[in-house]
Amino acid sequence: MKERIYEGRRGADGSAQVYYLEGNERWPLPLRLDLESKSPTGFNWGYAGSGPAQLALALLADALGDDSKALRCYQMFKQRFVCSLDQYKPWAISREAVKLMAGAIEVDQGRLLSPMRRDAANPRRRRSNAPPAKPAEPSAAPEK
Question: Among 72, 76, 83, 123, which is most exposed with the fewest C-beta within 10 angstroms?
């Protein structure tokens, strides 16, 4: 697989432009509105909004080649990477770096889910949804 680099910069009009470079070729990164339409007007970065969410989703979908994984990870990827970028400076990231970050996010998500997974795998650890048992009826008081 060829090395792929993603880069973002501002156009003369201030608009966000995102490309991927492979060899000597440069292509615009697709918005991937087919997965989720967070920002139909385009990408952005440097804050926690819809443009950065669309960028996070598109970067992950392209780098991973796995739309379902991209959908699971993009909000955390947005927080960890896209929001941290300076809004007014160009940036670049390799496909491998995106994949590594996605892998770390999946590990962290697994840690968050692990108690539930353990309970599901071990019936003795499951919490019962049944109502608590009624207390035993008190026995009649002895007659005097």
Answer: 123
The neighbouring-strand residues paired with 26 are: 21
Sign of CA dihedral 42, 10, 82, 19: positive
Max CA distance (Å), the chain = 102
Strand segments (E) across the chain: 4-10, 16-22, 25-28, 91-94
Torsional class of 115: left (φ above 0), alpha (ψ -120 to 50), beta (otherwise): alpha
Instruction: Compute the average pLDDT of residues 86-101.
Output: 97
Helix, strand, coil distribution of the chain in percent, nearest 5:
45, 15, 40
| Cβ pair 77, 88 in contact under 8 A | no
pLDDT digits (tens, 9 = 90+) for 1-20: 679 999 999 999 999 999 99
